[in-house]
Amino acid sequence: MRWKRVQSTDVIDERAGGGGLPGGRVAIPGGLGITGILIYLAISLLSGGGSSFAVDDPFGGATQAPGVQSPRGIPASQDPERDLKDFSVYVFERTQQTWEKTFREQGKPYEHAKLVLYRGGVQTGCGSATSAVGPFYCPADQRVYLDLSFYGDMQNQLGASGDFAWAYVIAHEMGHHVQQQLGTSDQVSQQQQDHPDQRNALSVRLELQADCYAGVWAKTVYKDLQPGDIDEAMNASRAVGDDRLQRQATGTVNPDTFTHGTSAQRSKWFSRGQQSGQPGDCDTFSGDV
Ligand SMILES: [Zn+2]
Question: Residues whose CB is under 5 A from ligand 1 (ion)?
Answer without folding.
Answer: 40, 207, 210
